[in-house]
Amino acid sequence: MATKYLFTNLLGSFVFDEQFKVVDSIKFSSFDEYNDSNKRQQTEQKLTSVHNPKFTTQQLLEKPNSKILQQILPYFKSKDNFSNFYSQNMALTASLIKQAVNEDDFIIQAINNIEEIDKVANTLSKRLREWYELYNPEFSRSIESHEMFVELILSKTKQELLKEIKHDENLLGADIKKQDLEPMLNLGRSIHELYSLKQKHTEYLENLMDTYCKNVKAIAGALIGAKLLEHAKSLKHLAALPSSTIQILGAEKALFRHIKTGARSPKYGVLISHPFVSRAKQKDRGKIARALANKLALAAKVDYYKGEFIGDKLRAEIDKKFS
User: Fold this and answer.
1) Pairing between strand 12-16 and 22-27?
2) Which of 14, 37, 190, 208 is the most exposed place for a label (fewest CB within 10 A)?
3) What angle do CA 174, 175, 181 make, to 5 degrees?
4) What would the mean pLDDT of 67-75 be, rounded to a whole number?
């Protein structure tokens, strides 16, 4: 009995004989038919029942460098097939790109945008403070928070602000005209809008984290959890990382410096922002970061494989251990 080979691709299902000539085929009328696994399977079954091929598509693709496959593929480079094959491949590529967009991308874009807004708002706030100190230096130096500073100078007069900090009079600030004060306040309004935008993006990120990786969020919080995911590039990759790697995500420069020069190895990266780590004594931070990373490694796996919510339990265990 002659040996036959069944090969399916974007164009259809083809049966080749021993001389690698097509003896039968069923072509797909559109890319959607190829994309439909049931339709593809039915097509292959029809040809298999008639020709009983020795090798199927799956068997041929298991050995991509085999001589058999090298003899089959040139058929699709012919003038009759190449143009259609190219257009179908382009359709497949476009479909895969569309399918590749998921919550990972939204989380990464959101956390990066929050950080960029924060940098811009802080830089402009420093500029505003320097400018406003010409008018009311006592108040500017009494308020640490940029956001609070902007909000207060927009909502209260100079006299009200001085009373707020228990200064009866303005000793150092110049008496400036309204036309010189207004540009300062305009800058303040723009900065206030940036802080409002940051808040909206933060709320959006928290909602995303609640639905996509709620266990990671329960342990690390939305911002730190998103930053870990951003460094790992996806939840899938984060779930595959060992806890020792999660512990130092965000400290890649320090790690490479350690490898290259023998400097001290980093004990934590992004996790330094976690309250458990930042509030701890210097000597305990590495130990706490390691414990957090252990729980986060487990949480990421549960989130990726759609397990139950155990984040509150994991966080309580850490809290109990280090409280």
Assistant:
1) antiparallel
2) 37
3) 100
4) 86
C-alpha 190/C-alpha 125 separation (Å) is 10
**Domains of the chain (ranges, CATH numbers):** 5-100 (3.30.420), 103-205 (1.10.287.4070), 214-322 (1.10.246.90)
The pair phi, psi for residue 118, each rounded to 5°, is -60, -45
What distances in angstroms separate CA 281 from CA 276, 277, 285, 322, one per listed residue?
Answer: 10, 8, 6, 11
Give pLDDT, residue 168.
62
- In the chain, where do the E strands start and end? 5-9, 12-16, 22-27
User: pLDDT of 93-126, one tens digit each?
Assistant: 888 888 888 999 999 999 999 999 999 999 999 9
Instruction: Give the number of other CB atoms < 10 A from CB of residue 101.
Output: 9
> Residue 241: enclosing H or E segment and its boundaries?
none
Q: What is the DSSP string of 252-296?
A: HHHHHHHHHH-PPPPS-SGGGGSHHHHTS-HHHHHHHHHHHHHHH
User: Quick check: 247 and 265 in contact, CB under 8 A?
Assistant: no
The single-letter code of the amino acid at 85 is F
CB-based burial of residue 237 (10 Å sphere; 0-12 exposed, 13-18 middle, 19+ buried)? middle
Q: The pTM is what?
A: 0.78
Question: Is 70 exceeded by the pLDDT of residue 170?
Answer: no
Closest CA to 58 of 50, 76, 48, 2: 48
Higher pLDDT, 215 or 23: 215
112 sits in the region (left: phi over 0; alpha: psi -120 to 50; else beta) called alpha
Q: Look up residue 316 and give its amino acid.
A: A
What is the model's pLDDT at position 112? 96
Q: List 25's β-bridge partners, or say none.
A: 14
Torsion of CA 126, 128, 131, 132, to 10 degrees: -110
pLDDT band at residue 22 using 50, 70 and 90 as cut-offs: confident
* Local structure of residue 73 (DSSP, 8 states): G
Question: How high is the pLDDT of residue 136?
Answer: 86
